């Protein structure tokens, strides 16, 4: 199985929620997968989506087709498409998104640009997703700790 984040340990055994690695791949290939779609997949199908590569243009296209086919097979409808942003926030190394900065400040922490740049694309994606007000963001602080940002530059 792929590496999951420690803050996801409460659900990764059952894969009852869509793990961050899959959410990252979905944004990468431009597919909106709903939780009810995910719940219709069996464990093997979920693990396939977790482990299937999605980095090169060919892998991204194959991942997208796999998702489309699987959702159609299980639900009888295709998932919605998402716009793929070639300038996604997690790809920008020169600037920390305001939402991430504000969320860190709630914990009296400041993320500096050097720390931001040392994170992987997936880690930056996670912090962005976990900082959105619409997301259940109880895992923001555990993610910061996991990414070794817990005490750096605290106010």
Task: Give me the secondary-structure topology.
Layout: H1 20-29, E1 31-32, H2 35-39, H3 43-51, H4 57-75, E2 80-81, H5 98-105, H6 113-118, H7 121-131, H8 140-146
Antiparallel strand pairs: 1-2
What features would you describe in this structure?
With 155 residues, the chain is mainly alpha-helical. It is built from 8 helices and 2 strands; from the N terminus they run αβαααβαααα. It has a two-stranded antiparallel sheet with strand order 1-2. The termini are far apart.
Concise synopsis of the structure shown:
With 155 residues, this protein is mostly helical. Helix content is 48%, strand content 3%.
Distance between the termini: 38 Å
Enumerate the strands of the largest sheet in spatial order, edge to edge or round the barrel: 1-2
Low-confidence stretches: none
In one word, what is the shape?
A: globular
What's the alpha carbon Rg, rounded to whole Å? 16 Å
| Helix-and-strand structural type | mainly alpha
The number of E-state strands comes to: 2
List the secondary-structure elements in sequence, H or E.
HEHHHEHHHH
Fraction of residues in β-strands: under 5%
Distinct helical segment count: 8
Keywords:
155 residues; globular; mainly alpha; 2 strands; single chain; two-stranded antiparallel sheet
